[in-house]
Design a protein that fits this description.
By secondary structure, the protein is an alpha/beta fold. The protein has a single domain, classed as Rossmann fold (3-Layer(aba) Sandwich). A hairpin with a 2-residue loop joins strand 1 and strand 2. The longest helix is centred in the middle third of the chain and has 14 residues. The two termini are 35 Å apart. Bound molecules: S-adenosylmethionine (SAM). S-adenosylmethionine binds next to loops.
């Protein structure tokens, strides 16, 4: 039996197109009963084509598990998780315009039980709840404090799995760094050379605009994405395409030596 709910189109496709236009501009292209929300997206049919490349790492049947979609935008991933049998699905975004799109999409497609809330990733502690699957796609590089966001997710909302994506720049090679870095090249007073290695974990700071977008702040290389995930307490289980990682929560490294994420829950507990 299909899990697809009943779709609603009030007033036909022309009315739908007008509503889509009124809610624009759209970042996610979502098929609303044959009418696309962002047919001229600069990346093509985004995020559908990207999702197709890594969907195989997710369980086909989410069996009622809970999902938190951080930076949910128009709700593409929230809807797809519902289609795979997720139970509670909560989408959060810091931008009310995208949340309006997400609510419209869910309403049009008949997914009545997806909840959307205006909330920054920095405030996830206020949810007071852990989720079986956290989706954190396409947000990290928009943040001024990316490791803080990963720490907060790990400390307060990640229950088991996290699906993560970030823009990456620089080398895709990954240098195996030593357990402890010597201050000098052994036997000399010279600084170690590994920091100049393109495969060393590097987070490139974008002071100005990137692709005409001032909200892009950081672009890690592949080694840095992986190192930051590990440092925040996420083990990488799959890397189905260069920018996408399926992770599982693990103990935070060095946790036994003292407090790790030092950011307590704040805001309203629900
Ligand atoms: C590039 S879009 C990615 C959307 C979607 N996750 C995807 O992968 O297609 C970035 C989204 O993150 C949201 N965002 C940016 N900063 C945020 C923050 N601090 N907390 C929550 N969402 C944020 C933006 O409003 C936007 O919807």
């Amino acid at each position: 039996m299909s899990t697809e709910p009943i779709r609603r189109i009030d007033g036909g496709k022309e009315a739908l197109r007008a509503q889509i236009a009124a809610l624009g501009p759209w970042f996610q292209n979502i098929d609303l009963c044959g009418v696309p929300t962002a047919p001229d997206h600069f990346l093509g049919d985004y995020p559908s084509f990207k999702f197709a490349r890594f969907v195989h790492v997710l369980p086909n049947d989410l069996g009622g598990c809970s999902v938190l979609d951080i930076g949910c935008n128009a709700g593409f991933y929230a809807i797809e998780m519902k289609r795979r049998g997720a139970g509670r699905v909560l989408g959060i975004d810091s931008d009310e315009r995208y949340l309006a799109q997400a609510r419209f999409v869910a309403d049009t497609l008949g997914f009545d039980d997806i909840e959307y809330r205006k909330l920054s990733v920095y405030d996830v502690a206020s949810l007071g709840e852990r989720f079986d699957l956290v989706i954190f796609m396409g947000v990290l590089y928009h943040l001024r404090h990316p490791l803080l966001a990963l720490d907060l997710i790990r400390a307060h909302v990640a229950g088991e799995l996290m699906l993560f994506q970030t823009m990456q720049q620089g080398s895709n090679d990954v240098l195996l760094v030593p357990e402890d870095h010597p201050f000098h090249v052994p036997g000399t007073m010279n600084p170690p050379g590994y920091f100049d290695n393109p495969a060393y974990p590097k987070l490139h700071f974008i002071e100005r605009e990137f692709a005409h977008d001032w909200t892009n702040w950081w672009a890690p290389n592949a080694a840095c994405s992986q190192a930051m995930l590990r440092a925040a307490g996420f083990a990488i289980e799959a890397n189905p395409e260069p920018e996408v990682y399926l992770c599982r929560v693990t103990p935070v490294p060095y946790g036994e030596r003292g407090p790790t994420a030092v950011y307590p829950a704040r805001g309203r507990q629900t």
